[in-house]
Write a structure and sequence with these properties.
By secondary structure, the protein is α+β, with helices and mostly antiparallel strands. The chain has 2 domains: about 260 residues, Zn peptidases (Aminopeptidase), CATH 3.40.630.10; about 190 residues, Alpha-Beta Plaits. The strands form 7 sheets. It has an 8-stranded antiparallel β-sheet. Strands 1-2-6-3-7-24 form a 6-stranded mixed β-sheet, sandwiched between helices. Strands 4-5-26 form a 3-stranded antiparallel β-sheet. A hairpin with a 2-residue loop joins strand 19 and strand 20. The longest helix is centred in the C-terminal third of the chain and has 19 residues. About 50% of the residues are buried.
């Protein structure tokens, strides 16, 4: 039996395995469980290791930071890196985010596309090669990552423990034909403090679910006298801003449109909308200064233009910036931003200028992570092998491309992103009602199997 036939015949099991994986809410949490990334993420790792063991693969758990299964012989190793952690579900879902519902030829749920679907497909691809009688000369290791969405501490741990690096590797967490460039990725949090003398007091503000998701909703509670509340209610109405009376004042809700933080132009930033609304209100001076900075220097922009850090190159396009979350209350608030600079640029071209402006506006940096840009020339051996696989499997043109998304490719030598999104398909990661088509899931499994064999033969 060839590997493609095995995958076709195993499609019902593949679907059910993915459904079981999606049903585990594997969002990073500091929950006191003792596990590095929380109980839910750990449960998902245990699920996948158990599934791999049932398929007859050797498995390994690296101190609950990540795990893998492996097949084949030889000293050299080829790696496929998937991740089981997911971003929070967020708002706006019409489908249950953790049911794995199959409807109209699609499997819905958080992680179906990013990255549980491709990771489960990769496990079935490995099993298909084993069942087909393939005899690779290198071992194939399928790594189950657990912290891709929150800094890749898992892959840093893998390196710190001196684990083997692959001669070739790919992560099915990007796009086809193959990703040979990834923008530099920076995440940062900034906190401000303020006093609020006067009649109008911000008591609560919250928006967004993660730094790398364009926030679809943001809300603020304002305490104020009835007369001032009535004046605020009389402001012109818009579809994006909803105002309502509360027992102590006003609630204002901003409604945007969610999107992946790497493609913020596809969304509308609700936090930016809320800051622009607050900018027009008679806030206390210290708070007003912070709000004015956020509204004027970022607002709903996604290119860093008003911060003076807009830049681009021909390979990967423009810098993108996402104001991902805000949370705070009467004494201060914290925001998290996510920005991605072009592959031919560096952090020094944008980071210091952004940080200086936040500092001058009275914000303190409380968290920071940075992954440098990645670029492999189209003529490199790994890119050539993967473009050939894609062309042979699909018959389509296979020109490498650069993306704004950040993947494990930055964390592992000799590795690039390969799939699972096909040219022309909607980018659904980090959005409500995330899904993968059953046909695309099966097609991915076949392409991943072909790529595994090509790199390991």
């Amino acid at each position: 039996m060839n590997y493609k036939q095995w995958i076709e015949e195993s499609a019902p099991d593949l679907i059910e395995s993915l459904r079981g994986c999606v049903q585990i809410r594997s969002v990073y949490e500091e929950d006191g469980s003792g596990f590095p990334f929380g109980r839910g993420v750990q449960d998902c790792l245990n699920y996948m290791l158990s599934l791999a063991a049932e398929m007859g693969f050797a498995t390994y758990n690296l101190d609950n930071h990540l795990g893998w299964c492996e097949w084949g012989e030889g000293e050299e190793m080829v790696a496929v890196l998937g991740h089981l952690d997911v971003v929070p579900e967020g708002d706006g879902w019409q489908m249950p985010p953790y049911e794995g519902r199959v409807q109209d030829g699609k499997i819905y749920g958080r992680g179906t596309m990013d990255d549980k679907g491709p990771t489960v497909a990769a496990l079935y691809a490995l099993k298909a090669l084993k069942e087909s009688g393939a005899k690779p000369t290198k071992r194939i290791r399928l790594i189950f990552g657990l912290n891709e969405e929150n800094g890749s501490a898992d892959m840093k741990y893998y390196a710190q423990k001196g684990q083997q690096t692959p001669v070739f590797g790919f992560t099915p967490d990007g796009e086809y034909p193959v990703i040979n460039g990834e923008k530099g990725l920076v995440n940062a949090a900034f906190r401000c403090r303020y006093a609020q003398p006067g009649d109008l007091v911000l008591t609560y503000i919250k928006g967004g679910t993660a730094h790398n998701i364009v926030p679809a909703e943001a809300i603020v509670w304002l305490q104020c006298p009835p007369k001032l509340a009535e004046q605020i209610l009389q402001r012109p109405q818009t579809a994006e801003i909803c105002r309502s009376r509360t027992a102590t004042g006003i609630e204002i809700k901003a409604l945007g449109k969610g999107a992946h933080g790497g493609t913020p132009q596809e969304g509308i930033n609700a936090i930016g909308l809320l800051m622009q609304e607050l900018q027009a209100l008679p806030l206390a001076p210290e708070l007003a200064a912070k709000v004015n900075f956020m509204a004027a220097r970022i607002g709903t922009e996604y290119d860093g233009a008003s911060l003076g850090i807009a830049q681009k190159d021909e390979i990967s396009g423009p810098l993108t910036l996402n104001l991902g979350t805000v949370e705070g209350g009467e004494n201060g608030f914290e925001v998290k931003v996510n920005y991605r600079y072009p592959v031919t640029k560096s952090f020094e071209d944008c980071g210091p200028a952004l940080e200086q402006q936040f500092a001058e506006a009275g914000f303190e940096k409380t968290w920071f992570s940075h992954k440098k840009s990645l670029y492999l020339p189209p003529e490199s051996e790994l890119i050539q092998k993967l473009t050939r696989v894609y062309h042979e499997c699909t018959g389509l043109e296979a020109t490498p491309k650069a993306i704004g998304g950040g993947t494990y490719a930055k964390m592992m030598p000799n590795t690039v992103a390969f799939g699972p999104i096909f040219p022309g398909d909607e980018v659904r990661e980090h959005k409500p009602d995330e899904f993968i088509e059953v046909t695309r899931l099966i097609e991915n499994a076949k392409i991943i199997a072909a790529a595994m064999y090509e790199l390991a033969k």
